[in-house]
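Local shape tokens

___
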Amino acid sequence: MRFLFPPLLFLSLLSLLALSFFAGTQNGARPRIGRAPE
């Protein structure tokens, strides 16, 4: 059971990153990095 934790954590982190990236692309597909909100 202990050997199953690291891969699970890595998978969840990767999925979260992919989800955030997908959400960012769906939202107008414009990079918000380096651009200050008005």
